[in-house]
Amino acid sequence: MPDVNGSLSVSSPVRGTALSLETVPDPxxxxxxxxxxxxxHPEPGQEGGQEGTQEAVAPIDGTLAKLHPHAFVVMAxxxxxxxxxxxxxxxxxxxxxxxxxLAEEGAEVSAGTPxxxxxxxxxxxxxxxxxxxxxxLDAAPGALHSFTxxxxxxxxxxxxxx
Length: 162
Fold this sequence. Notes:
Blueprint: E1 8-11, E2 16-20, H1 27-30, E3 37-42, E4 54-57, E5 62-68, E6 71-75, E7 82-86, E8 99-101, E9 108-109, E10 114-118, H2 120-125, E11 132-136, E12 144-145, E13 150-152, E14 157-161
Antiparallel strand pairs: 1-14, 2-3, 2-13, 3-11, 4-10, 5-6, 5-9, 6-7, 7-11, 8-10, 12-14
């Protein structure tokens, strides 16, 4: 949500461990090709085990501009800033299997609104990384600050975008 000086607080879409985007095993994310951000390594799902599920939530208030089973983009109300959430790496290969859409593209959402239910354990069982890149699309170098490092709750602060 933008504050009075125009900065945008971005929250974590999942609970887990926040680490540098450089830890993501995909150069598109690790080298910041689509923008800077943070990687969240998710914790096991609420029900535990390989099939435990969790909900990925909107990281900011705005419009759900793009929605795929494995990824979504929320555009801020200022229409200048978009945040990409990518659930796992190479998960497009799953063709939606193991992901349940909880919202519709074009919907107005608030930070914390459930967008997709998924199972990180199920993704891992298929041999795919479960890391969740949270990217400030096309942000200028140095535009992000106040990064969270370590444990982060779903909906907890992740970084600030100036």
